[in-house]
Predict the structure.
Amino acid sequence: MTSTFQKHQRRIGKSKSVRTKLRTVGGRPRLTVFRSLANISAQIIDDVKGHTLVAASSLEKDLRAAIKGMNKTDVAKKVGSLVAERAKRAGVGQVCFDRGAYKYHGRIKALADAAREAGLSF
């Protein structure tokens, strides 16, 4: 039986592995995703400067009213399109997608597809 500590270490290791592979892309900001049981958030980070350029979350006040009654996948699509719109306004067109330790499936895939449809390329 694995302990909570071991599960956490495995998750961190997987996340680092994905991020290491993204470094080969180089120069592009990183679109990273965080998923909890109830919410999802995404942010675009410039790793060279160490700054967050754009962020969007299902916890935002103006988005809360729009997503009321939606299922989690549809909420992820809304957040993906919102982060892409904000990125375009900030002058970011190309990013690399950092899924962290999550599988590219379900809400993570829905967010990525919505961001692509809204004009972000990765």
Notes: The mean pLDDT is 93.
